[in-house]
Specification:
203 residues; alpha+beta; Jelly Rolls; six-stranded antiparallel sheet; five-stranded antiparallel sheet; 4 helices; 15% helix
């Protein structure tokens, strides 16, 4: 797994073995995950989303603790996947990094608790599957507007974004920070340290 420029995010770029029957690849390996992160992936929920061209989901994040780490890949079509550092006090606060996930490169992405996540569908029927460290808890889920000029995420040109009502009305980064919604970098670091020692504060 390759560490991205944002602390707590890694990309898996697997070798794909095609033949006349189709193809095969490993999109998750526990040993490689542990070597990169220092702990095992806790699996509490698996999700699948299907999006038409232009759909923009996110930027989503969850309260820490317990937070929600995500390990994801695109099974069909293509998406531009974006990780955003929303941890107040982080040296990279407000920075983002994008990675194309598609059914050709078969890349996968892991983002730790406290990081924001968003993606735009670059094809119809873009199908993304997630492994999540905690189950869905709406009272702990939040969002930041993906088109916030302060974030200035470089979404693909010529693709009109299609947002849900929830994401359309999400606060800006500044509004979320002022409202105390964003996770603390120090709290996130303490959470990661507990995971590495085998202890958990997940509820």
């Amino acid at each position: 797994m390759r560490a991205l420029g944002i602390e707590g995010a890694w990309a898996l770029e697997p070798e794909v073995f095609p033949d006349d029957r189709g193809g095969f690849h490993e999109w998750y390996r526990g040993a490689a995950f542990r070597e990169a992160t220092g702990y095992d992936l806790s699996l509490a929920q698996a999700n699948c989303s299907v999006s038409r061209w232009g759909v923009l989901r996110g930027v989503h994040f969850s309260d820490v603790p317990p937070g929600q780490a995500k390990y994801l890949t695109c099974l069909r079509g293509a998406v531009l996947d974006v990780v955003v550092d929303l941890r107040v006090g982080s040296p990279g606060f407000g920075r983002w990094e994008a990675l194309r996930l598609d059914d050709d490169n078969r890349n996968a992405l892991f983002l730790a608790e406290g990081l924001g996540h968003a993606f735009m569908a670059l094809t119809d029927d873009a199908t993304v599957v997630y492994l999540c460290s905690t189950g869905y808890a709406p009272e702990r889920e939040h969002g930041v507007h993906p088109l916030d000029p302060e974030l200035a995420i470089a979404w693909p040109e010529g693709v009109p974004p299609v947002l849900s009502a929830k994401d359309t009305h999400a606060p800006t980064l500044a509004e979320a920070r002022d409202a105390g919604l964003l996770p603390s970098y120090e709290t996130c670091k303490a959470h990661y340290a507990r995971l590495r020692t085998g202890r958990s504060d997940q509820g």
